[in-house]
Amino acid sequence: MTSALILHGTCNKEEFFDKATPSLSNSHWFPWLQKQFLCNNILCQTPELPTPYNPDYNEWKKTFENYYNSDIKIIVGHSAGGGFMLKWLHENSKVKLDKLILVAPWLNTPIKPAEFLKFSIKENALDNIKETILFYSTDDDPSIIESVNIILAHYKQIKTFCFENKGHFVHSTIGATFPELWQSIIE
Q: Considering the entire predicted model, what is its pTM?
């Protein structure tokens, strides 16, 4: 059975501990996307990655690898979750996926930027991914646009979807659904 994972990004400490704010794995469009997978008979998990306000790559890796198995064929990474996936795939380049979807991927987060997502890009790191799709919006943070440009400069095979008014693809800019992303999965 095909399975999927959705990986969230980082946040500040105040947001993380705000009891009125949903956990990152239950925020933005993630619950809606998970429901789309489940309604289409694709098991989907959205793990809560540890201390997103003070992320540690090895801790995220440990948590992620508790969920990852060879049935996982689709991975969606938002923001630092996308940057994390790229770093992890560079370390695990033999992993095979049907789809890797990066939404506003961040390679240099303002939260521990030098340690968390630092890695050297290898041109062949995505060779075992059948399709890599990248969503970004021109009105996102300049550091996201810089990350997108770095990724696209190294991986010409990536299919891109560029928007002008979706910001960082969070609830306040796109709401609780993301039909364009789901369409890219089922195509």
A: 0.96
